[in-house]
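dumping this here before i forget
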Amino acid sequence: MKIFIKKEKITDDNSRLYQDNFKNRFFHPYDSRSLIKRLFGYCNCPAHKRHWFVYPRTIPMNTRYQDKKDNWVTCCEDFYEDVVAPYWQDMWDTYYSSR
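structure:
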């Protein structure tokens, strides 16, 4: 008996680039930090200003800029959840309420 497994191609760039694996954690195409800062976990967000070994992630923001690299932010997950995500949610709420 043969079993065929259908492989699904990921078509959404954000879901493909947000996968938590070694390649995307250290060599994400939209991470502008140097190789040393990537490997040793340098975090430049205000919560961890100039701290090493924090290992921030490159996370997609709730934006739709034409330049795809502007839709991503490199910061620790706590800073993203506490500051970045609520900021963009508030901006979208203001935008939709004014229409």
